[in-house]
């Protein structure tokens, strides 16, 4: 039989090298579970349900223009944002996946005013739009599954991450004290494949990401900090600005390339804009586990902040370790 590898014809040089040892998210979760003797499998089952909802949302986003899912649904969510048809459908898909998993006790979502109670074990939170951010708390064994179970600092999260929906969906997940791993949805296989193992942020990078339209409302130290980035740095050049206006997309870029992402509290939004439970805390866990930092507008560690209610907000600065150190310097001054 001819050895295909010995064939030097032009056609063979175009042959795709097939990776036959693919680490799918399912395999990754199974292998992680095996490392923890005390694991009951509940977390793995919950992640399978999460994974299914991300795949479904990614599928509908890819087909949205074909099946008339673009545009507004005609309602506003609890925090005042117009709800897009995709937000509503994504939220419903997510809730059903969590309910049917049998492993989710209660759920907080940007799209829902109140906590949704399912009456079983752990807990994800979600904010759905260009991406889905999730944080999972484990309920204590004696818990009845109440609001208090969820009003906890991010440092107690069992796992956190996000999925960004694009041409191919990207899922980033980390567990308490663990590494950060990135998976890409292979649309053909229908599987999330480990594409970015052990993600680490560069310790510095001259990129800032903030809505500068709010600068009129910023505190003086915030203004001075951002102005300092526009001065020539050691290499003679100022920082570059990159702002998409979607936390998941801005965070994902920052995670890959480094820099700083900020949504500071300001005179217009004294508590900040982004929500602690399902935006700031899960992202802070991802950034810390990838070697970066995340602080609030008082320069307190984001993972130590306890939300006062389920939709409580905070200012946030997160990104490369040294870039966040620089923000702190301006706040000390
Ligand atoms: O909280 C929703 C959100 O769209 C985030 O994903 C994003 O970072 C932020 O709001 C953008 O806000 P703004 O349009 O005020 O810059």
TrEMBL record:
Coiled coil spans: none
Pathway it works in: Carbohydrate biosynthesis
Keyword Coiled coil included in the entry's annotation: no
A Pfam family reported for this protein in Swiss-Prot or TrEMBL: FBPase_C
Enzyme's top EC category: hydrolase
Keyword check for ATP-binding: no
Catalytic activity of the protein: beta-D-fructose 1,6-bisphosphate + H2O = beta-D-fructose 6-phosphate + phosphate
Keywords in alphabetical order: Carbohydrate metabolism, Hydrolase, Magnesium, Metal-binding
GO-annotated cellular components: cytosol
Biological process according to GO: fructose 1,6-bisphosphate metabolic process; fructose 6-phosphate metabolic process; fructose metabolic process; gluconeogenesis; sucrose biosynthetic process
SUPFAM superfamilies: Carbohydrate phosphatase
Annotated Fructose-1-6-bisphosphatase class I N-terminal domain residues: 23-197
PROSITE patterns (alphabetical): FBPASE
This enzyme's EC code(s): 3.1.3.11
Cofactor requirement: Mg(2+)
Domain Fructose-1-6-bisphosphatase class 1 C-terminal: 202-331
Domain of life, source organism: Eukaryota
GO molecular function (one): fructose 1,6-bisphosphate 1-phosphatase activity
Binding partners and assembly: Homotetramer.
Protein family according to the UniProt entry: Belongs to the FBPase class 1 family.
Designated name of the protein: Fructose-1,6-bisphosphatase
Source organism (scientific name): Parascedosporium putredinis
